[in-house]
Amino acid sequence: MMTGDEYRRSLDDGRETYFEGQPVIDIAKHPMLGITVDSAAAGYDRFYDPTPGAVGAFMHVPGSAKELREQVELHETVDLLTHVTYASIMTLLTAADRIEATLPENAARIRAWVAEAQRRDVRITQCITDSKGDRSRRPSQQDDPDHYVRVVARRDDGIVIRGAKLHISAASMGHELMTIPTKSMKSGEEQYSVACMVPVNAPGVKIINTTYAPRHHDTRDFPISGRHHTPEGFVIFDDVFVPNERVFLDGNPELAGIFAHSLGLWERLGGLSSMATRYEALVGFAQLISEANGLDRVGHIKEKISEMLINATLIRATLEAAIENCHVTSDGAAFPDELYTNAGKYHGAANWSLMVRHLHDIGGGSILTAPGHADFENRQVGHLARKYMGTMQSVDGLYRTRLFHAIRDLTADALGGWNAVTNIQAGGGLYAQRIVSRLHYDMDRAKETALRTGHMEEFIGKV
Ligand SMILES: Cc1cc2nc3c(=O)[nH]c(=O)nc-3n(C[C@H](O)[C@H](O)[C@H](O)COP(=O)(O)OP(=O)(O)OC[C@H]3O[C@@H](n4cnc5c(N)ncnc54)[C@H](O)[C@@H]3O)c2cc1C
Asked: What is the pLDDT of residue 243?
């Protein structure tokens, strides 16, 4: 396994990555992107085990509801890169299971690659979302055929791919790009039915980074995003060669959707689990700021917080149900229940804006305008800021200000905007979560229940 420092050094591998129009020469030392590298390096140090052949505890494949719960709880405490590596490994193993019957050799190739990746202790990011061009047209009908990643040449020893994958979390900080189709493909779309592993430093891979990291020089005013932030990568495959042993699907359009569906499950479980924690935090902030404002006993404030905590409880309940109703495969791996995972993630994403609306309504304008830490340290105005930001003897002005900073950072500034969009889009958007929920919902049972309720038993099984 690698230590944090070995991980830092491993990134000096000739990768071509850009930030704000400039090439990034040393990503580990970059003033902004380097902070994400530090978080990932801390993850390496945390899980480091010098025993030969050891595999990080975060990689453990759960075999029961209890182990799945332990993994989910563990992943709540790890950096994003470590988490997406786990989700990628689980995706690959899930997909191997699902393609086994048709492509046993490819399934074996995936499992061999996973074992090797665990041995090398590399970090993997997930390249699914294509640039997609005109959304109303199929990949093969685009004006520009490169809007979905595709195979442009075949050689005896591998394939050459071209295209771009967008919004890829932490792409520049990992070692491997798990490149899989964004959706199901149809006959005639063989060139787009490609799943493979691409090293970040492969010739032809170019990554443009964007980030919600605070640009303010005093990061104390950004208590959440100032400590950890993760850039998204715009990943371009400019005719990249991929050797055969790294190609998991090439052709077989009927199997293309399996990879994205397998990923969706793990992505949404991760999303649901962090949503459960974030919802709790929003309730906590609403209660704390209402107490600091002296309004916690007022009727309309209590009503809003009650609605928030009911939502938070429902999100937590779906997470519990997804874990408790997990399915164990013949290989002994436990998978969360699809319906609870997707329905919970959907509810959380769809109601995030309502939760934030209540919090903003309860908190007041200082969410945006509370003075910064440096103002509190100023000899002329600091004591006055503290005096007027305080509300009563038991509520110190700086404490209340720090609550406002945290609320602004989480919900109303760059990270806040990122949360608002990401909660909805990540894992495929609300639409995708609705489709998957519908797919796994027992509609026959619902119809039967309706017919029984209406005393129309004679129609059961006939309509
Ligand atoms: C911060 C962030 C991090 C992300 N991380 C990753 C990552 O690590 N890896 C990764 O692969 N992706 C990642 N995503 C991408 C995410 O999965 C996509 O944003 C999402 O799938 C939507 O795709 P899009 O952004 O291209 O939007 P669009 O596809 O343009 O969707 C916009 C809207 O149009 C609808 N729509 C699109 N096409 C159709 C159609 N044919 N018919 C009907 N409705 C349609 C969608 O449902 C949606 O409501 C991330 C996104 C964000 C914001």
From this structure: 98
Task: Give CA–CA dist 262/268, Å, rounded.
Answer: 10
Is residue 132 lining ligand 1, measured as CB closer than 6 Å?
A: yes
Single pTM value for the model: 0.94
Please report, for residues 23, 251, 260, 323, 343, the alpha-carbon distance to residue 256 in angstroms, rounded to integers and kept in the order given: 34, 8, 8, 27, 24
Q: Is the CB of 168 under 6 A from ligand 1?
A: yes
The class level of CATH for 257-449 reads mainly alpha
For 159-206, the pLDDT digits (tens) are: 999 999 999 999 999 999 999 999 999 999 999 999 999 999 999 999
Summary mean pLDDT of the chain: 95
On whether the CB atoms of residues 417 and 212 are closer than 8 A, the answer is yes
Which atom of ligand 1 sits closest to the CA of residue 427? 17
Distance 272 CA to ligand 1 centre (A): 17
Q: Say how far apart CA 318 and CA 343 lie, in whole Å.
A: 8
Q: Rounded to whole angstroms, what are the CA distances from 312 to 2, 292, 306, 309?
A: 38, 22, 10, 5
CA 183, CA 271: separation in Å to the nearest integer? 20
The Cα-based distances of 129 to 145, 168, 454, 455 in angstroms read 16, 8, 45, 48
Q: Is the CB of 94 under 6 A from ligand 1?
A: no
**Which of 124, 129, 147, 421 has most ligand 1 atoms within 8 Å of CB, for mutation?**
129
Ramachandran region of residue 72, left (φ > 0), alpha (ψ -120 to 50) or beta?
alpha
**Cβ of 429 less than 6 Å from ligand 1:** yes
Residue 118 in contact with ligand 1 by CB distance below 6 A: no
- pLDDT digit string (tens) for 368-386? 999 999 999 999 999 999 9
| Separation between Cα atoms, residue 1 and residue 357, nearest integer Å | 45
Q: Which of 229, 232, 425 to mutate to test the pocket of ligand 1 (most atoms within 8 A of CB)?
A: 425
Residue 266 CA to residue 256 CA, distance in Å, equals 17
The response to whether residue 250 sits with its C-beta less than 6 Å from ligand 1 reads: no
Pairing of strands 124-127, 22-23: unpaired
Q: Is the pLDDT of residue 157 over 90?
A: yes
Q: Is 138 in the pocket of ligand 1 (CB under 6 A)?
A: no
Nearest CA to ligand 1 atom 29: 135
167 CB near ligand 1 (under 6 Å): yes
Q: Is the CB of 169 under 6 A from ligand 1?
A: yes
What type of residue is 60? Answer: H
pLDDT at position 378 is 98
What pLDDT is recorded for position 67?
A: 94
Task: Give the contacts of 159 (CB within 8 A, at least 6 positions apart).
Answer: 151, 153, 194, 196, 241, 242, 244, 247, 250
